[in-house]
Amino acid sequence: MTPAAARRGRDRKAEVLMPAPGRDRFDPADAPSVAVVGGGIAGLAAATGLAERGARVTLYEREESLGGRLAGHRTRLADGSEATMSRGFHAFFRQYYNLRGLLRRTDPALARLTPLPDYPLRHSGGLTDSFARVPRTPPLSALGFVALSPTFGLRDLAAMDARAALPLLDVRVPEVYERFDGIGATAFLDRVRFPEAAHHLAFEVFSRSFFADPRELSAAELMLMFHIYFLGSAEGLLFDVPDEPFPQALWEPLGDYLRRLGANLRTGTPVHGVAPAGGGGAEVRGGTGTDRYDAVVLALDTAGLRRLVAASPNLGTGPWRDDVAALRTAPPFLVSRYWLDRPVHADRPGFLGTSGYGGLDNISVLDRYEGEAARWAEKNGGSVVELHAYAVGTGADPLSVQDDLLAQLGRIYPETRRARVVDARHEWREDCPLFEVGTYGRRPTVRTPHPWLTLAGDGIRCDLPVALMERAATTGFLAANALLADRGVRGQVLWTVPRAGRSPVLRALHALAGRPAR
Length: 518
Fold this sequence. Notes:
The protein has about 525 residues and is α+β, with helices and mostly antiparallel strands. The protein has 17 helices and 22 strands.
């Protein structure tokens, strides 16, 4: 795949990351055996990067299906219909170059992704921001947002502390972590004098997409998101979503692709321990016994990585093990999906971000874009609505939270108050990484103390401007590339948004103003 084909984006300033030079692939006689532990986005990216170059890949996934936190499972509704329940809406932004490159393996034109026309953000005070008409290319994107927004106007812009806000215009990776990981996102916004309404509608929605209270989230992570999605990229803030449930649209085709490459996919097979083997490589203890491999990629969520390392006493060094043990998981979140006996109004968007409505963070009307939900809605004259609550407070009563979300839906979409709930499913989870203030320096990296072991996942430190699903895909490819480079094989070409502010004028202003105090 050529660099241009790997990117396939519109931003001419997107950066290419070339892999270390080497031969195209392994010869069958010297192909290493590699265990990839974890079948989410990171593990699938690592397995793809390795298997395409001839490595003998075995992928372990404890669940019965692939996809990790984007997996899904079949369920039968009260009316007898079959449906696919997942853990909720995910936005496939256009600047997710490496994730989209992974999906192109089975869908070259990305025809299984459909664009949503808008991403409105609504506050309970009555203000709503839209991104449908905002230009995509910075700095026109920022100027257009201010011109069109009822929340953030020129008066608000003038009231901000320009000197304190300048770092937002020139986010540099990884420098942003060195300078701003020590303060919280809310504290930074207060320092900047960011207007309260815009704080709720924009930054809080972004921060809560990390499943974190913005008071606890590192300001560096918040600034990085502002750079990735707004001022650092010309791809814009609109995004795509799969046109069918995640398993059918994404993971089942990718699993078939890996099998055709010769990979062995062991779903329903947890790994209980990894140990260095004499003479190099590792022994992996799984549900079917112990197998030996030349290399291992651990592509697990935060809690899973902690457990596996704790159960593998000969893995790594003391400081490295301490850093893994220090990783924390974000507060629990809830996804509630309702099959209703009547449609929501035709003008309701496919996705709505919310603020000020209790614990409700967003509403998805699945039948606007997902084929399975649309077919059910058409057959039954109803609708399929999904509600999210991120960072639910410790000790909250699950039933009370579920009831509150449904009541908030009635406030925002009053027509749903008269609807009968045909069926409902609720997913309570607590497995996302938490990027607390001051933790960046301790996060484990792709490379580990063992040359045969690499890590991948959205909680792994990556000194590139990537986040969420794109961080998972990027670290997965980086984990594969590291093992390939050590064996003289060229890995995957990667792309990111620019690693520094894209405007020379804004960078110059930042430099002239001097760096604000930490």
